[in-house]
Amino acid sequence: MSEKQDPFSAPFGTLFGDHMSVASYVDGVYDYPGAAVPMENFSMHPAAHVLHYASECFEGLKAHRQVDGSVAIFRLQDSVERMLLSIAKLRATPPSAELLSQLIIDATTANASFTPDAPGSLYIRPTFIGTAANIGAAATPSSEAKLYVINSPVGDYFPGGVRPLSIFIETDIPRTTPQFGSVKSGANYVMALGPTLDAKRDHVADQVLFASGDDVTETGASNFFLCDEERLITRNLDDSFLHGITRKSIIQIAHDMGLAVEERSIPVDELKAWSEHGEMFLSGTAAVIAPVGTVMTRGETVQVGDGQPGPTTLKLRNALTDIQTGAAEDKHGWLTPL
Ligand SMILES: *Cc1c(COP(=O)(O)O)cnc(C)c1O
Question: Of the residues 43, 89, 129, 294, which has the fewest C-beta atoms closer than 10 A?
Answer without folding.
Answer: 43
